Amino acid sequence: MLSAGLFSVQQLVLMTVDIDASLITALVERWRLKTSTFHMSLGEVTITLEDVDTLSGLPIDGEAVIIDVPDQEWSATCMRLLGHAPTDLSGSVVRISWLREQFNHLPPNASS
């Protein structure tokens, strides 16, 4: 994960966040599916790639990483890319709880 520039994903997986239900409700009420924007009192607001970069630390520049993997090969692909494979894979879905269990602690020699 580190060599792929996904250190920030590992950090996000480890985060525990208190969810503010009233804030989520307010945002859902202002979301417009047709335009993929929030309609706020100041105008239309959308989430950009720069927002994703700022909030998650995920790199947004450079070449996209796209892997076409047949459904039956996801376990082997996870093992090759992550060094671990979930036992309860459902298609290409990897559970956050599994990521937490596997990558809760980085080895001392890990680099960002």
Automatic annotation (TrEMBL):
| InterPro entries hit by this protein | AminoTfrase-like_pln_mobile, MAIN-like
Q: Which domain of life is it from?
A: Eukaryota
Aminotransferase-like plant mobile domain ranges (all copies): 5-104
GO BP terms: namely: meristem maintenance
Q: What is this protein called?
A: Aminotransferase-like plant mobile domain-containing protein
> What organism is the protein native to?
Linum tenue
